[in-house]
């Protein structure tokens, strides 16, 4: 569920939504979402001073906590 949420948010932000890919690494107590976007869209996902990335991580954390887990978003370049 978290993957779909992040994918929806990120695809709404970027210029090349087809380049968005999310790899999910499941652990016992946490889930790591590895986000890849087109090189020209990395700045749009991170935002000025990391504000957009922080907002996405906050939403992701709230969603994961609701399910009793912990989720981490890593933006790969």
UniProtKB/TrEMBL annotation:
Pfam families, A to Z: KH_KhpA-B (PF13083)
A GO-annotated cellular component: cytoplasm
Family matches, as InterPro entries: KH_dom-like_a/b, KH_sf_prok-type, KhpA
Sample GO molecular function, one term: RNA binding
GO biological process, one term: peptidoglycan biosynthetic process
Protein's job: A probable RNA chaperone. Forms a complex with KhpB which binds to cellular RNA and controls its expression. Plays a role in peptidoglycan (PG) homeostasis and cell length regulation.
Subunit: Forms a complex with KhpB.
HAMAP family: KhpA
Protein name per its UniProtKB record: RNA-binding protein KhpA
